[in-house]
């Protein structure tokens, strides 16, 4: 009967050793997995920093474009105020330009590409008004 106790104890020790072995293997695998997760998170953090940097640059550029548009809008307003004698058609044109400028200012904050197009329109309007003024002076 005593032998059965020794055999049972021996089997229990072997089972415990096997259990410890698999726990160690599992812990090593878990450590490797956590190491890979850490590397992935570090890579993701670098990518997020890059996106944040690009977003900041884009916002800065958009703000500069919006400021430029506001400056051009104020110049156009001054020009239209000085040209009141041209007539009702020019007043309607001035009102349209103000609405376009406000729309451009609003959309320039949202999309850079649309803002670039608005800058082109502003330049075209300035050219048009200059040409009209030059033709009137001649």
From TrEMBL:
Keyword line: Coiled coil, Membrane, Transmembrane, Transmembrane helix
Membrane-crossing residue ranges in chain numbering: 6-25
Coiled-coil parts of chain: 27-54
Name of the protein in its database record: DUF948 domain-containing protein
Source lineage: Bacteria, Bacillati, Bacillota, Bacilli, Bacillales
């Amino acid at each position: 009967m005593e032998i059965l106790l020794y055999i049972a104890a021996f089997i229990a020790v072997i089972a415990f050793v096997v259990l410890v072995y698999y726990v160690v293997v599992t812990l090593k695998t878990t450590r490797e997995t956590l190491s890979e997760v850490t590397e992935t998170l570090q890579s993701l953090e670098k990518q997020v920093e890059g996106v944040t940097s690009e977003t900041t640059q884009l916002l800065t550029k958009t703000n500069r474009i919006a400021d430029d548009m506001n400056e051009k809008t104020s110049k156009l307003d001054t020009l239209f105020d000085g040209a009141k004698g041209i007539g009702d058609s020019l007043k309607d044109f001035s009102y349209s330009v103000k609405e376009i400028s406000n729309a451009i200012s609003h959309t320039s904050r949202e999309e850079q590409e649309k803002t670039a197009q608005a800058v082109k329109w502003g330049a075209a309007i300035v050219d048009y008004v200059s040409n009209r003024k030059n033709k009137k002076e001649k």
